Amino acid sequence: FGLRMAGVDRAARRARVAELLELVGLAGFERRDVASLSGGERQRVALARSLAPRPRLLLLDEPLSALDRALRERLAGEVRAALVATGTTAVFVTHDHDEAFAVADRIAVMDAGRLLQAAEPARLWHRPASRRVAEFLGYEAFVPLADAPAALRDAVRERAGAVDAGGGEGADGGPVLALGPGSLVRAPDGPVEGRVVAAGFRRGVVETVVDVPGVGHLTVVEASQGPRAAEALPAPGETLRLAADGAAIAVVPA
Questions:
Q1: 243 and 144 co-located in one domain
Q2: Is the predicted pLDDT of residue 168 greater than 60, yes or no?
Q3: What CATH number should be reported for the domain holding residue 83?
Q4: Rounded Cα–Cα distance for residues 236 and 194 (Å)
Q5: Is residue 184 located within the same domain as residue 92?
């Protein structure tokens, strides 16, 4: 439709359609009935149709929201590949931050109509501008830097480019440590203790929720050790030794 509106002749339209269907993995689907397409195939067709007239700017508003999670994750990568291949600039609107990280070169976080932060994905994750942004990204616990356990302060201090972890204003001011899944890792001689609250599997990893004194509940993530790993899951109430990973701890304003 977009090509017809632009006055493109039939031969050029057919060539463009074939080019884009091949790009989105649907080569040979030109005459396929829409009713015979799967949800993922329909989304690929919609993307190809949007790209056909070579738009200078493309708005994609929750394009994957109606699909199941596994398909969303796969198509997010395909959407990015198609945008890069065609050199198309796009605004991709989503409430799923995993989608945003999979697709975008730059992410803008908005809340109630206000722009909270815009940055490249890696910088956004490691340097959230505020506690609100960090909460949206999935950070779980927030501790004033001056009141944090020494092991956490040391981990932040050792991280390249980290803020000065030598002091602060306590609970009412100064920088705050933001911790999430991966901020603490299992270590036999680790300086941090955590009491197991719950443990279970999630897509090939073991996630253990621990209660750390002075910090709160945090998720420790480990690779699954195979089908018999359930026999070794930490039991509720068990104490784990943990170490801090400074690269997985962010520092945000109070």
A1: yes
A2: no
A3: 3.40.50.300
A4: 11
A5: no
Nearest to 149 by CA among 106, 192, 210: 192
- Which secondary-structure segment (H or E) carries 72? helix 69-86
Cα 163–165–166 angle (5° rounding)?
A: 130
Q: Which helix (H) or strand (E) holds 207?
A: strand 205-212
Taking only the tens place, the pLDDT of each residue in 27-67 is 888 888 888 888 888 888 888 888 888 889 999 999 988 88
Residues 134-152 have a mean pLDDT of 93
How many angstroms from the chain centroid is the CA of residue 78?
Answer: 16
Helix (H) / strand (E) element for 137: namely: helix 131-137
Residue that has been written with the tokens 């302060």 in this structure: 153
Identify the pLDDT of residue 213. 94
**Residue 130 located in a structural domain:** no
